[in-house]
Amino acid sequence: MGEHHHHHEVTGKNLFWTILLNAGISLAELIGGIIAGSMALISDAIHNFSDVISLIVSYIANRLSQKASNEKQTFGYKRSEIIAAFFNATTLIILAIFVLYEAAQRILHPEPVKSDLVIWLSLGSIAVNGLSVLLIKEDAKANMNMKSAYLHLLGDMMTSIAVLIGGIVMKYFHIYWIDPVFSILIAIYLIYMSWGIFKSSLKIMMQFTPDNIDINQIAKDIGQIEGVKNIHHIHIWQINEHDVMFEAHLDLDTDCRITGFEKIMLKVNGYLKEHYGIEHTILQPEFSIDDDKKLIH
Questions:
Q1: In what order do the strands lie in the sheet with 244-252?
Q2: Which burial class, exposed, middle or buried, applies to 152 when counting CB atoms under 10 A from its CB (0-12, 13-18, 19+)?
Q3: For 11-47, b where at least 16 C-beta lie within 10 A, e where not — what string?
Q4: Is the predicted pLDDT of residue 1 greater than 80, yes or no?
């Protein structure tokens, strides 16, 4: 999904018109690309259409993520944005691989391209993306998600300029291999833009430990807190892009009262929040339990 992560509600007609404009030019480029026999135009249409899907899916996911938790969904729908990001990144990579395959076939078996259609449709795409950029420019200043959408649309405009250059070269110099070469470059760019989001969203869905967290260092630091003998059975995972969960067993030095454990717990929570921004913790106190005490269980 792309890269469009909504962290607070994004509404307004500007976003609606951006989606509508991009849907229109994507369809025009796709039909035009098929008629003209231009892989570059088709790959640009896919690129534009990815924005449309990305904005729509992320917007729906954002609305879902704001729904309150209940007895059946105790975390609410917080992970919906991650699923949306994974879906968008995956479909983009698949489409880019398809473009690479088709472009390679075209290099091996070059075909004439109707360059006039390529030129006019790429000009249309530049105009639409340019207008889209202007429409959400103000929103982008105050909203991180809209800023990523703004940069993505700016990237679309740049790829359309590449298609236009290819169209002009084909029209005046009849160099038709330029079309599949440009479509390969666009496909590589799409994979480059999507790969990071694909990996990050997959890691979150698989409940991997976030990259910036060192479990061994956490165990070492918490083990030095007064009253803590050992920390083990640690689990750290993310619900969404921002909310990190921490779970562990704390082996205590003494058979203390609950109020004594609460003081230790406050220190552990304070450390996790200060160093890693972790605010959601589940700590199980232990004194005489005989288990393996393994850091990861």
A1: 228-238, 244-252, 280-286
A2: buried
A3: eeebbeebbebbbebbebbbebbeebbbbbbbbbbbb
A4: no
C-alpha angle with apex 3: 142 to 92, nearest 5 degrees? Answer: 150
Burial environment of residue 189 by CB neighbours within 10 A (0 to 12, 13 to 18, 19 or more): middle
Q: Please provide residue 34's backbone torsions phi and psi, each rounded to the nearest 5 degrees.
A: -65, -45
Q: Which amino acid is at 35?
A: I
Q: Are 23 and 106 a contacting pair, CB within 8 Å?
A: no
Question: How much is the pLDDT for 52?
Answer: 82
- CA 219 to each of CA 21, 262, 292: distance values in angstroms, whole numbers, following the listed order: 53, 19, 15
- Indicate the SS3 state at residue 148: helix
Residues 6+ apart with CB under 8 A from 108: none
Burial class (CB in 10 A: 0-12, 13-18, 19+), 191: middle
Alpha-carbon distance of 85 to 96, in angstroms, equals 16
Is the pLDDT confidence value at 174 over 60? yes
Q: Which residues of 235-257 are buried (b: 16+ CB within 10 A; e: fewer)?
A: ebbbbbbeebbbebbbbbeeeee
- pLDDT grade, residue 53 (50/70/90)? confident
Q: Are 295 and 234 in contact (CB under 8 A)?
A: yes
User: Could you give the domains of the chain?
Assistant: 13-205 (1.20.1510.10), 215-286 (3.30.70.1350)
Q: How far apart are CA 162 and CA 122, in angstroms?
A: 9
Model confidence pLDDT, tens digit, residues 201-240: 899 999 999 999 999 999 999 999 999 999 999 999 998 8
Structure confidence by residue, pLDDT tens digits, 192-209: 888 888 898 899 999 999
